[in-house]
Every structure is written in structure tokens, then in C-alpha cells.
Amino acid sequence: MTASPGTVDEIDTPAVLIDLDRVERNIARAQQAADAAGVRLRPHIKTHKLPFFAQKQVEAGAVGITCQKIGEAEVMADAGLTDIFLPYNIVGRQKLDRLRALNDRVILAVTADSTATVEGLAGTFADTARQLKVLVECDTGGGRCGVQSGDEALALARRIDAAPGLVFGGLMTFPAPGKAVEAETWLAAARDLLAAHGLPCETVSSGGTPDMWRKPAQGVVTEYRPGTYIYMDRYQIAKGAATLEDCAATVLATVVSRPTPTRAILDAGSKALTADTLGLADYGELIGEPEARIVALSEEHGKVELLPESKLKVGDRVRVLPDHICPVINLYDQVYLVSGDRVVDILPVAARGRLS
Amino acid sequence: MTASPGTVDEIDTPAVLIDLDRVERNIARAQQAADAAGVRLRPHIKTHKLPFFAQKQVEAGAVGITCQKIGEAEVMADAGLTDIFLPYNIVGRQKLDRLRALNDRVILAVTADSTATVEGLAGTFADTARQLKVLVECDTGGGRCGVQSGDEALALARRIDAAPGLVFGGLMTFPAPGKAVEAETWLAAARDLLAAHGLPCETVSSGGTPDMWRKPAQGVVTEYRPGTYIYMDRYQIAKGAATLEDCAATVLATVVSRPTPTRAILDAGSKALTADTLGLADYGELIGEPEARIVALSEEHGKVELLPESKLKVGDRVRVLPDHICPVINLYDQVYLVSGDRVVDILPVAARGRLS
To answer: What is the ipTM of this complex?
Structure first.
């Protein structure tokens, strides 16, 4: 960490502020919950994209980290992270070559949900000195990627197991929100089917912050990869997974216009807050202004509806709690770590914009 | 431009491809339309964020460029652009200091819609050797920033005119979509009111690509600042302002999963396409796959619904036409300029992420 004295008052807007005390509390609480549930924690770095916090998560007891793109994993490996899970179908020559290079320097695992993906991996790693671990991705109701049945999982696990350069590593899912129980039932049946055919699952991986506090049933999930818990956001509050006091990341913005008694305009629009509401009403909320509603965003303007008695005026600086913090972080080259009103450090968002 | 041989086939995904031939056609057509209408063209660079294209727009006949943030204007000034309009309320010490420095090196104009904003500008430029031009922003129905009446415009213009460091430059609006006529009526009345009080408007500035092809009525608008016309997008097609053949920017993506006969997953999610649909159904469209629908995005996955007979398979590379291209461009560190399947150049998106 480099020295960066100063206070929040000196930061130009819009800017992301990260409350370091809350981050440390969120990291510790999630680790305790995972330990109590007997589940390994493998945090997803998509939320923060910072090697600094990835290291903190590992120091707190995480077995490793989760990345979604090879580019993110490369950044984390460069920073010294050593155990990385990439729950994604890696497809195409460029990515397969990079994956092989990455596998030579960290403990790596990926997922696959099709023969086509497994064939690409098998060909790439056929002559490797270091095998690649591959888990089968399962669609347990989320409706995204994943094999559709235990039989499909078995067929794919066999194909992985038969490839000289690959090792079958288990099952992975991203459950539909609120459907963790159904996902576990699906996974337990598939795990048992595979075990009956001589393919035990070393790892069964699930994810999603909203469901992370419930005690996993059936003992099937061995690893959990939540992301958002480190910062939390308005969506997590709506889901009952966090309180406002848990939320560590806010966007500092300035009121630049008060054209009518009931309207204010912020210098934070979709380029600072994203258009991603995860289905919530409003585009985030103004902390300490419960009657104010962020009703519309254009790229550089946030439109706020106020009660006529609001005292907000041009030049006021406000903090916005985003609906979905992960894509917001991806818009910023740097974030400000703060403790109260003191700026502790300014960190580049090293894995921002790693699209491939 | 640096040499960068290669073809589209060699580009890893997701990536933004810019069809250079279409860009040049779009630039020429907009300039011709502006010339024919007797309106000065001042393109908004928010869409491309590239000095290279800003220069091309000026070479084609634009009187200058429009930027929305000081950081964007600084990038453009560094690249040699000399005439910049910043239609924004510049508020706060940090920004005002930067604005003064910028005004020393380019022909600059800004907007204001409140006494508070004008006071900040007046104080900053009180002792300047080089006055700052300030236009009054008018809310002609768009419901964002802007004074609410001609009387308010007059009062603010007088305050600007009375400040030693400022010059009153005219009126500016961002009209509500499809309400260009109403905006012009509003502006004509305000212009006449100000002229009657000895404050003629050198410039009356309007914007928005969808309405740029209609002939301005009443001769009130003297400058137009469209942005999206250089690339066009699915929204502009929906508004009748473009055809698919005008659209110059697409996102190259790879099919990474075909979990069911009617579902494909792309490696382009909201981090590659944004969640910003501008109200359209679907998150962009697959070019050449009219039956396919991009029905949902998570950060790294695009979910496509297909007809069962679709031949799309894992590994196929597709081009996605985004709904709203401007925020998409802001997600990418670089774009690929192409002519047919040949990569002509790779350009850094120099003004990406300039939030303040």
C-alpha cells in the first residue's frame, strides 16, 4: 500500500469509496459462517477485482479464489495468488493457450458442460506435464450453462476422466436465486450416481451471496464461492442477506442541478452506477436521504425525485448505495479505501475490464 | 495508426469491432445533412471516445466536438482537438481548477442552469486573462437539467453577462426524444426574450441522433451535437434513424454452451454488452440469426433463446448488435477497426472511464 493521505472531502466525484472496516468484518463473518458449516470458502473476485482483497480473503482462511475470466486469473496469479477456480467453459485457441500457460504456474481448475468444451481442453492438455482439473457444470435450475441431468454429468465426467491431460474434479453449479435446496438435491443425486460409477467428486461447488448464510442441507456442497458478500449492496439488503451497515462500497457523487423543487441531478449516471438494477425499483439509493429516489439514469446524469422540502442543493456531496455493486466496480480505474472520513489508500482495480 | 495486421478470426472474444467504411459513411452523411440544414455540427465524442474519430469528424467539417466530462475534454485537447463544448454544470473546486486550466489551451464553452453553478464559474474565472463562454441549459421537456422558463434563462444569462470572467454564449438543450419541435418552440421564445433584453444568442445548441435527420423548423437551432450517429445501434434502428447496414460497431462473441436445444450461452454478458437496453426488448441481437433472442445477461454470460433447429454450436463466433452502443464502448480498453474481415488497426479507447 502506498501512502495517500487525505480525506473524503478532497476526492473528486464520482468515485467509489470502500469502507475498509466493513470489508474486514464481512470477510471475517463469511469465513466464520463457512467454517461453522464445514464448507470451504473460495471467494469470487469479480466483485472487488483487487489482488489486495483477494489476499485478505485467503489470509482469513479461504482455500483459494474464484475468477470468471482468464484475464482476471492472470492478474491474480501475477499478484501471488496460487489457487484459482475458473468456473467457465474455456473455448477457442487463444484462451486455451493462455489456460495452459496459467496451469503451469498456479493450482487451477475449470468447468465444462459439453463434449465440445472437453475436447478442446483434452487436446490442449494432451501432452502436458501438469494435468488440468475439470469440474462438470450443472444446470440445477439457474437456466444458464450446465448439463441438464445426472446422466449427462456422468457421461461428461467419464470423458474428462478418460483424457490423459485432464482430471475429473467434481461438480459445480450456480443455483437459481433462492433455490439452494433444489440445487443441493440435484447435486446429491448426481454425486451419488457418479460415485456408483467409480467417479467420486472431490469438490461440489456452489455459489451466490444471498444464500450463503443458510446452513447447507444434505452435506453435498463442499465449496462455496460467493462474491458480493465482501461489499454487499442494495440487492443483498433486499434479499435479506445484509443490512445497510454491512454495505462497504458507495459511490460518492455531487448534486449538479436542482432544476425544480422536487428534482435533483447527480453527476453519477449509468457510466458511474450502471443500468443494472437486478430488478429493483430505482437505480440505487441516497444514503441518509430516505425520501429521495434515483428514478432514472442517463450516461452522465442521475435523476433524483425529492420531496419539495428537501434541502439538497447544488454542490452537496452524497453517497449512493448501488443496486448491484459488481458491475459498478468494473467501471472504475481506481477505488478509495476509507476508514471513516480518512482515505487510507487508493488502489487500481487491477482486474477491471478483463473481458477474455 | 500503428501497423496491426491480421483478420477478425484471430481476435479473442468478446471484442468490439468497428467497421471503418461504415464510420466514414456515417460521418459524411451527418455532415451533409447538417450542411444542408444550415446547422453547425459539433459531434459528441461520448459514443466513440477516440481522438482518431474526433479528428475525422472535424476534418469532415464539424466546427468542434462535444464532451460530457472534463476528463474526456482533457484527453481530446491532449490529442490536438482545439474547440470543445462541455454541456454540463461544472461544480466543485477540483473540477473548476481543471476547467480553468483547460480554458487556457482550447476554445471552450460550458453550460449552467443555476445561480450556484454560475457563481462557482464566476469566482474561478474572475481574474482570468481568457474569459469562459457559458451557455444556459434549458429543460425543454427532457426533464433532466435546465432552467424551467424563458424568464429563468434571462435571469441566468444576465448573471453570466455581468461576471467579468464569463461571456454569455447562448442556449443549450437536450430535447426529450421525439420532441424536437416542442424544444425548438421553447428555445425560439427564450431566444427572442433574451434578444429583446439585449442578450442575443450566438449559439443555440440541440442534440440527439434520432432527430438529426429532420430539417429543423423555425431556424432557431444553430448547432447540433449528435453522438451515436457515428456507430449507430439497435435503438437507432428502432427509432427509424438507421438501418442495420449503417451500424458500424458490433461485439464479437463466442458460443460457449448449448445446454438445451433452444438455449445458447455467449461469453458476452453485461460486462461486455451492458444492462442498458434503452427500453428495448432483448439485450442486443445476433446478426444473421433473426430467430435468436438475447433474453438475459449476467455479468459474463449472455443467454440466447433459439429455435430447436438452430445450428449454432459451441465455438461458433457471432456478432452482436448492441441496443445502446455508447455505454458498451466505455467497457472496452481497445477497439478493433476493421474493413471487411481485415483488421486495419487496434485503438485504445483513450477517453474511456473518464468519470470526472
So the answer is: 0.96
